[in-house]
């Protein structure tokens, strides 16, 4: 199962609501005995008899029956642990099992609630590296994070640094000194925000990327506006036109592929290959032709935009996997991904041409 499909399933479970405490969450860490877990669920099933509400009692026991059935499918705990979710939503009993996660589950959980508790599973598919992003100019600044291949804005702010035209009666030197003082104060404010976001409040960053006009970005880094611990992590400075949320995306593009984690790099490389094959007329299809190529077993890698309905994405992945291919979800937070989503939505790199 791909990380993207796992995230889709997590998102769908997170969107569900139950009535009262009718949704069951069970997580079993790697290495924990399934026998003791089965005993716990059997005890909870018996204890549910004490629930006063007939409807709630019936729904909880139905959910626990489903959990018990899933647990019987395993001789032992999977290598990365096991997570089981079950409950009645809008009258229907639904369940989901995660048994092939990319990283081990680390906590044992049993909850009956009006929602599913998904943090333990979500943590196993979180990107490994996070980068800090700062775009700074004299007139504005933007601060954000690069999480995998997703840009997450933290804050944008405008400065009160005076423009280049001075008021009547001001000497040129005094005016310039005041402008520099205001710029220094603004740069320090941006530095303090970055320090708080990347050292104090947020998760640690693997590196910091700074953008703006090259002179301004370099001045911001060189003149000690950043905490020394953050300054030591500066990956580089890059020319960026806008000190806005758009500028954060431009900064990632300017900094290049080295900022992306391995999965994100591989995805972008395959997308680049898709566009290159398209230009050269090589073995590539898109749109409705993808389904026909899948039927011929010709699809090596399917590309599906993240804006495509999750059920369709999962259907494509299942069909492609049956013929030994892989499916990659293309994020839309960068230019090429957005262009792919708008123009193609679904595409495929082929093992051989299909007429």
Automatic annotation (TrEMBL):
Signal peptide: none annotated. SMART domains: eRF1_1. Transmembrane segments: none annotated. Residues 1-126 form the eRF1/Pelota-like N-terminal domain. GO terms for biological process: translation. Keywords: Cytoplasm, Protein biosynthesis. It is found in: Cytoplasm. InterPro entries: eFR1_2_sf, eRF1_1_sf, eRF1_2, eRF1_3, eRF1_Pelota-like_N, Peptide_chain-rel_eRF1/aRF1, Ribosomal_eL30-like_sf. One of its GO terms (cellular component) is cytoplasm. Pfam families: eRF1_1 (PF03463), eRF1_2 (PF03464), eRF1_3 (PF03465). The keyword Cytoplasm applies. It comes from the Archaea. The keyword Membrane does not apply. Belongs to the eukaryotic release factor 1 family. This is Peptide chain release factor aRF-1. It comes from Halosimplex aquaticum.
């Amino acid at each position: 199962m791909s990380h993207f499909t796992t995230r889709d399933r997590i998102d769908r479970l997170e969107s569900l609501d139950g009535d009262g405490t009718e949704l069951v969450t069970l997580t079993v860490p790697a290495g924990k005995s399934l026998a003791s877990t089965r005993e716990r669920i059997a005890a909870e099933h018996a204890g549910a008899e004490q629930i006063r509400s007939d409807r709630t009692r019936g729904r909880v026991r139905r959910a626990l029956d489903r959990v018990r059935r899933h647990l019987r499918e395993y001789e032992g705990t999977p290598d990365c642990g096991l997570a089981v979710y079950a409950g009645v939503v809008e009258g229907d009993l639904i369940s989901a099992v995660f048994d092939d996660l990319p990283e081990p589950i680390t906590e044992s959980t049993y909850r009956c609630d009006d929602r599913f508790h998904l943090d333990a599973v979500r943590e196993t598919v979180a990107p490994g590296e996070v980068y800090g992003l700062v775009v700074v100019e004299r007139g504005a600044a933007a601060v954000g994070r690069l999480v995998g291949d997703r840009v997450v804005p933290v804050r944008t702010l405008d400065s009160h640094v005076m423009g280049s035209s001075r008021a009547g009666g001001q000497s040129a030197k005094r005016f310039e000194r005041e402008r520099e003082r205001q710029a220094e104060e603004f740069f320090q404010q941006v530095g303090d925000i970055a320090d708080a976001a990347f050292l104090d409040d947020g998760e640690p960053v693997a590196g910091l990327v700074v953008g703006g006009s090259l002179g301004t970005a370099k001045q911001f880094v060189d003149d000690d506006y950043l905490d020394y611990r953050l300054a030591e992590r500066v990956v580089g400075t890059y020319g960026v036109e806008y000190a806005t949320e758009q500028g954060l995306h431009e900064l990632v593009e300017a900094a290049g592929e080295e900022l992306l984690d391995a999965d994100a790099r591989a995805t972008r490389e395959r997308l680049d290959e898709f566009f290159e094959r398209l230009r050269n007329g090589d073995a590539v299809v898109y749109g409705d032709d993808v389904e026909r190529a899948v039927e011929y077993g010709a699809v090596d890698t399917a590309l599906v935009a993240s804006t495509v309905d999750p059920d369709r994405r999962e259907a494509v992945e299942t069909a492609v996997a049956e013929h030994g291919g892989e499916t990659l979800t293309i994020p839309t937070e960068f230019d090429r991904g957005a262009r792919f989503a708008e123009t193609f939505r679904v595409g495929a790199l082929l093992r051989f041409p299909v007429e």
